[in-house]
Specification:
The complex is a heterodimer of chains A (249) and B (313). With 249 residues, chain A is an alpha/beta fold. Chain A has helices spanning 48-56, 78-83, 101-110, 125-137, 153-166, 183-194, 209-215, 233-238, 240-247; strands at residues 10-19, 22-32, 37-41, 63-68, 71-72, 86-88, 171-175, 201-205, 218-223, 226-232. Chain A has a 6-stranded mixed sheet, with helices on both faces. Residues 1-5 of chain A have low confidence and may be disordered. Chain B is mainly α. Chain B has one domain. Chain B has helices at residues 2-16, 18-21, 24-49, 58-73, 79-101, 106-126, 128-131, 153-176, 178-188, 190-195, 200-226, 236-249, 256-269, 278-292, 297-309. In chain B, helix 8 (153-176) packs across helix 9 (178-188). The radius of gyration of chain B is 19 Å and the shape is globular. The mean pLDDT of chain B is 93. Classes of the chains: A alpha/beta (249), B mainly alpha (313). Chains A and B meet through helix 2 and helix 3 of A and helix 8, helix 9 and helix 10 of B.
Chain lengths: 249, 313
């Protein structure tokens, strides 16, 4: 292993969060090495999305630390974290309904460019060209000029991923990228995720075990806001507690 | 986009002809429509493009008008200096109000903007030594931009028209820019925008200040036109009329606020000389718009035109 691997892409240290007395994140610690593929498992209400929201800064933890490449980002705003290479997708589709696919992806590009503060000129042509290229990566180039409201659900899921990929993130959080998809569509997305370059570390929440286990190298299992097991994929699958809490049913 | 730049000089030239065909009453009505249009255009930045419904935008119109009145009569400044100081003062006021109001969005934002403008309204009424209270500040004069008198109805109308065109062009450039695109993004998906790296708060604050700036310009033209300023200009009625113009014409469209404020000004000043209960008429017209074209006149007509075109294809 190279020296770079001494620094974690993402490091969570003893994170705690409760909503009006209800603890949703309890003493959670987790690390993600650069390039790692980590699966975040747990039954409904285990606090997976809440953990994502704390990593991105949409929710602030009560205590604990979040680091990106060694830098403490616990107090940073979501947009500041995005500029450090953090990106995410949403379980509930969060796209710009009335804008075209190209325009949606362009938002992902513009967000990290100084050009977003240009008060005089429209978005430059090369942002739009690049947005189209990224849409090509998820196989939606032919729909680039259609508004989001006119495309199918499965295609929206791909736009979610395209928006994140456009940012070339160092750490990408995927929140149930396969939710609500048919098996054919699941395979498309699975391939998409498998093709994400290793410069990007992945943390994924997913309930579809067949697909998710194939993509994962490491697994963190959450239950009632606590980390139950954390380890290499095969070790976690073989673990009795994992079967009890989650995999068994 | 380019289509708009093609139409601006044509429409402006068309409007410039009004004094040749109409009497002073209508020309003055036209000037008032221009003032209302600039005001609505600036408010539309917040309401239409930012998704931030303000019920206190009259604050900026009033502050600029009072500052100009005070600087020219009490401080004895010339019109040029007074105008500059008034606009700087109003813009700074908008920066401060933005800091307070943007702690919230939605209804909270609406209530805070309302509260802030009400504070100024109360101040204008009670701080008699400065504002002359309920009597208002009278005896004001009009400036002579580049040595040209704007005393006559026609010359003032052309002056107001030039400022309106400038406002329209600069506001259009603003909302079409990369920044303007980001602003619309914060209106539609503020959470996602933040996650994508946009500083949502800063985008809104800058827009608030820019809207305040143009609200101040509207206030200057307003006080030049009336040569008088009274606390009512700061009242909720004044803010609401602007909002009515934006919503009636079509919020989030470029020309909607102009169409809407032309309509509101027409009903208020023209229809009121024939019907005592012009407010009721305004209510009916507004209800008609809301029922038939819920997103405003301009999008409504656009949709209608689209429907007419369709079968021909």
């Amino acid at each position: 292993m190279t020296a770079q691997n001494d620094i974690y892409a993402l490091e969570i240290v003893r994170l705690n969060k409760s909503f009006v007395g209800l603890p949703v994140t309890q003493d959670v610690s987790m690390t993600v090495r650069p390039g790692e593929r980590r699966l975040l498992l747990g039954p409904n209400g285990a606090g997976k999305t809440t953990l994502f929201n704390q990593i991105t800064g949409e929710i602030l933890p009560n205590s604990g630390q979040i680091k990106l490449f060694g830098q403490d980002v616990t107090k940073l705003k979501p947009h500041q974290r995005a500029h450090l290479g953090l990106s995410r997708t949403y379980q509930i589709i969060t796209l710009f309904q009335n804008d075209t696919l190209q325009h949606n992806v362009a938002f992902g590009l513009l967000g990290l460019m100084p050009a977003r503060w240009n008060f005089f000129r429209p978005m430059s042509q090369h942002i739009l060209v690049e947005a189209r290229r990224v849409l090509g990566l998820v196989g939606l180039e032919h729909l680039a000029d259609r508004p989001i409201s006119e495309i199918a659900y499965g295609e929206k899921r791909r736009v979610e991923i395209a928006m994140a990929l456009a940012q070339k993130p160092k750490v990408l959080l995927l929140d149930e990228p396969l939710a609500g998809l048919s098996s054919a569509e699941r395979n498309t997305i699975k391939k998409l995720i498998a093709d994400i370059p290793r410069e990007t570390s992945l943390v994924m929440i997913e309930h579809d075990m067949d697909t998710a286990l194939d993509l994962a190298e490491t697994i963190t299992l959450l239950h009632y806001g606590k980390v139950i097991i954390d380890g290499m994929r095969d070790a976690v699958i073989a673990d009795e507690r994992a079967r009890e809490v989650y995999l068994g049913h | 986009m380019n289509k708009i730049w093609f139409w601006v000089p044509i429409v402006a030239g068309f409007f410039a002809l009004l004094p040749f065909v109409a009497g002073d009453f209508y020309v003055n009505l036209g000037s008032q429509m221009m003032i209302a249009a600039i005001f609505a255009l600036s408010l539309n930045l917040l309401v239409g493009y930012g998704g931030l419904t303000s019920l206190g935008h009259a604050a900026f119109l009033g502050v600029a008008a009072y500052l100009s009145a005070w600087f020219t009569t009490r401080a004895g400044f010339g019109h040029g200096t007074a105008a500059l100081l008034s606009i700087i003062g109003t813009t700074m006021c908008a920066a401060l109000f933005g800091l307070i109001a943007l702690r919230a969005s939605g209804l909270g934002f609406l209530m805070i903007t309302l509260a802030l403008s009400q504070v100024l309204w109360g101040l204008a009424y009670r701080w008699v030594s400065v504002t002359n209270g309920d009597n208002g500040m009278a005896g004001l004069t009009r400036p002579m931009p580049f040595g040209i008198s704007i005393e006559s109805a026609a010359s003032f109308y052309w002056f107001a028209l030039i400022v309106t065109v400038a406002a329209f062009v600069l506001i259009t450039v603003f909302v079409s820019s990369a920044f303007g695109v980001s602003l619309k993004g914060t209106r539609d998906q503020s959470r996602r925008m933040a996650a994508l790296g946009f500083n949502v708060w800063m985008i809104r604050w800058i827009t608030f200040i820019y809207a305040g700036f143009w609200g101040g310009i509207a206030g200057l033209i307003y006080v030049y036109y009336n040569k008088y300023i009274h606390p009512t200009s700061l009242s909720i009625t004044s803010s609401a009329e602007g909002l009515l113009g934006v919503i009636a014409g079509g919020s989030g469209t470029l020309v909607g606020p102009i169409v809407g404020s032309v309509l509101v000004t027409f009903l208020k000043n023209y229809a009121s000389s024939y019907i005592d209960r012009w407010n009721m008429l305004l209510g009916f017209v507004f209800m008609f718009i809301v029922i038939v074209m819920p997103d405003g006149i301009v999008p409504g007509i656009r949709r209608l035109a689209g429907r007419l075109k369709e079968p021909r294809k």
